[in-house]
Automatic annotation (TrEMBL):
Superkingdom assignment: Bacteria
Basic and acidic residues composition-biased segments: 243-266
Keywords: Coiled coil
Annotated region described as Disordered, given as residue ranges: 105-124, 203-222, 238-266, 332-354
Name the record gives this protein: Uncharacterized protein
């Protein structure tokens, strides 16, 4: 039994050890898996780092190449300048060589022409020698040449030939001799006038091949002319270049002294070639110094930027130090009163907490500054509001305090003033709401009147339609009124502005704006028809009744007196019909009576009278014309003409107008289908009040 217990205990211990080993194995497997994952990640990171390193090496190589190129840039630029200068010099030398080649070519062509002339002269001389009788064919080279020139010998030969031919004629020979002597004396005189230099040069030319005969002399003269022209051209070009060089030398010459600067002895050129070489060397040195100057300027600019950055950093450090000093100064009393407790966390946590505290402190300081600015601005607004001229009549203590207290003390009394003004604010708010409701009611009423007025305008156009039988006017509307129907919201807004304007004029002193009902209605209609307004056109009465419409504003300029009267009668009839229509009597034909005082004096044309009566008959208006004229043509247009006379009652002191006679006796019979007439005028009486003495 004891052994079994030991074995059981040992088995339990082994089982526990096995479990622990199993757990340790699982932990090791997990650690191995994590290690493998870490190794895989490390491999990936290594590959990425290798790729990054390779890219960095490539970038470094590229940057090194660029740096080398930048370092060699100055030498390349110097070489480029040297090559440019050498190219310019080569171009100059090439131009000089081209000029020389051109001159040599011209000289070659001149020599070729001279050789051709010499060969031609030799052939001519050989032919001439062959023609001379007794002349030897071959001449020894050692024979001495005659002293006379070839032209002289030729002339002597010609003279001898002529003498030989004229030996038998003595008189002719003597005459010929006299003429020859005369020509010889004239030629000798002409020759004597020339200088010795000219005669010597002429003799030399005659002895040469160019003076052998006439064609040779002409060819030589032509070559001489060409040579002279060539020399003159070269001389002019050289003169121009000399003048240009002299001008450039004068322009570049120093103002004071003989030279711009003193050169050392080894730099003083001896000739033009050495001067060019020295100039090229000086240009290269100048380019090198210029590059050095640019590098120095770049370095100086970098130093200036670094200096400014250092100054800005120093300024920021000073600001931070000042802020810290202010914070330390503000917290000195608290530190003395209450010793702070040490932070329980780590150093990193303490730094983070301090950074957050500083950020919070800066945010709170910014909020405090913004709040103080808002309070100051609100105080300024309150003071300006209290000092406004609109509230000069307000004598409340609060307004007096606001005006007298300093701006810094206003926030302390703000709560008390707000509590004191709250009841008055509620009362004013209620009154403003009541005023707004009253304004809306007035605007609604005015809108109804405006819409009714616009409807009246449309009715006036509709009722002005003319009857048939008037030519082109038949069925036309005598009055045309055009306008745009306003939108309801726009109409309400514009009418509100009209009411506000009338209200402001009532408050103002010495305002001449009328505020009666008709004026308000007219302004409301005008505001409703904005911005185009209303356009009213009327038919122009003429003899042929053309449908020509004229704006009412141009009636005084376009219409005659009779046309104006006719248009006025038509407008009155339209208004009378409109009034009858508004009163609900549109079914009745009679719209009223119109008395006219001597209209025939202005409108006696028959077509105008017919038009007046036709319009009045169509609109149901009875026209009564009174006139003192006896125009039979005009009176013949009326169906009834009654002549009146003045009577007086001497006993009563009254005056009457009575019917004298009927030019057309008999009243017109009443139409049985027409509207019945319930009364008629049988007599009239006029009372004139006596004037008081």
């Amino acid at each position: 039994a004891g052994r079994l217990a030991e074995l059981a205990a040992e088995a339990g211990r082994l089982r526990t050890a096995a479990d622990a080993a199993q757990q340790e194995l699982a932990a090791l497997r997990e650690a191995r898996a994590e290690a493998e994952e870490t190794a895989a990640e490390a491999v990936v990171v290594r590959d990425e780092r290798q790729e990054t390193a390779q890219r960095a090496r490539r970038v470094a190589d590229a940057l090194a190449g660029l740096a080398y190129r930048l370092r060699e840039r100055a030498s390349w630029q110097a070489k480029l300048r040297d090559l440019a200068e050498e190219g310019a010099e080569a171009e100059e030398r090439a131009e000089e060589c081209i000029d020389r080649a051109r001159a040599a070519d011209e000289e070659r062509r001149a020599a070729q022409r001279a050789a051709d002339d010499a060969r031609r002269t030799a052939r001519a001389l050989r032919a001439e020698r062959a023609e001379i009788a007794g002349a030897p064919d071959d001449i020894a080279e050692d024979d001495q040449a005659p002293a006379a020139s070839l032209p002289a010998l030729r002339e002597a030969y010609r003279a001898a030939s002529q003498v030989y031919e004229k030996v038998g004629v003595g008189a002719d020979l003597r005459a010929e001799q006299a003429r020859a002597e005369s020509d010889e004396s004239a030629a000798r005189a002409e020759l004597d006038r020339l200088t010795n230099k000219v005669r010597t040069r002429a003799a030399q030319l005659l002895e040469g091949t160019d003076g052998a005969d006439g064609p040779s002399r002409q060819a030589a003269a032509a070559r001489a002319e060409e040579l002279v022209q060539t020399l003159e051209t070269r001389a002019s070009a050289a003169s121009e270049q000399l003048g240009r060089l002299r001008g450039e030398a004068e322009r570049l010459a120093p103002e004071d002294g003989e030279a711009h600067t003193e050169l050392p002895e080894d730099r003083v050129p001896a000739d033009a070639a050495q001067a060019k070489e020295l100039l090229r060397t000086a240009t290269a040195e100048l380019a090198a110094r210029t590059d050095a100057l640019e590098s120095a300027r770049t370095a100086h600019a970098g130093l200036l930027r670094a200096h400014r950055a250092a100054e800005e950093a120093a300024g920021g450090f000073d600001d931070t130090a000042a802020l810290l000093r202010d914070l330390l100064r503000d917290t000195t009393g608290d530190e003395e009163a209450d010793e702070p407790e040490p932070y329980s966390g780590t150093l990193e946590e303490a730094r983070q907490a301090a950074a957050e505290a500083r950020r919070s402190l800066r945010g709170c300081a910014g909020d405090l500054s913004a709040a103080e600015s808002a309070v100051r601005e609100a105080s300024d607004v309150l003071v300006r509001h209290a000092n406004s001229t609109r509230y000069e009549q307000v004598r409340t203590p609060a307004r007096q305090q606001i005006r007298e207290l300093p701006a810094a003390a206003l926030p302390e009394h703000a709560a008390a003033w707000a509590e004191a003004f709250a009841p008055r604010l509620r009362v004013l708010t209620d009154e403003l709401e009541q005023l707004e409701r009253n304004r809306d009611s007035i605007v609604d009423r005015l809108r109804g009147l405006v819409e009714s007025s616009l409807a009246t305008l449309r009715s006036a156009q509709r009722l002005s339609r003319l009857p048939e039988g008037l030519g082109e006017w038949s069925g036309q509307e005598f009055l045309r009124i055009r306008f745009d129907d306003p939108d309801q919201s726009t109409l309400t807004e514009r009418l509100g502005e009209v009411i506000d304007e009338a209200t402001r004029s009532a408050v103002k002193k010495n305002s001449d704006l009328r505020r009666d009902g008709m004026s308000l209605l007219l302004r409301g209609v005008r505001a409703a028809l904005l911005p185009r307004g209303v356009a009213v056109e009327i038919l122009k009465p003429d003899a042929v009744l053309r449908a020509e419409r004229v704006p009412v504003g141009q009636m005084g300029d376009v219409f005659s007196g009779g046309q104006l009267l006719t248009a006025a009668i038509a407008l009155y009839c339209t208004m009378a019909a409109l009034r009858s229509n508004d009163r609900g009597r549109d079914k009745q034909r009679h719209a009223g009576t119109l008395f006219l005082d001597n209209p025939i004096g202005r409108a006696n044309a028959t077509y105008l009278l017919e038009l007046q009566r036709a319009v009045a008959d169509a609109l149901g208006v009875q026209l009564l014309y009174t006139t003192g004229l006896f125009d039979t043509t005009a009176l013949a247009e009326f169906p009834l003409v009654i002549r009146l006379r003045n009577d007086a009652d001497l006993r009563a002191g009254l005056k009457y107008i009575s019917v004298e006679e009927h030019l057309r006796p008999g009243l017109p019979q009443q139409d049985p289908d027409a509207e019945p007439v319930h009364g008629e005028i049988t007599a009239t009486r006029m009372f004139r009040r006596p004037t008081e003495a």
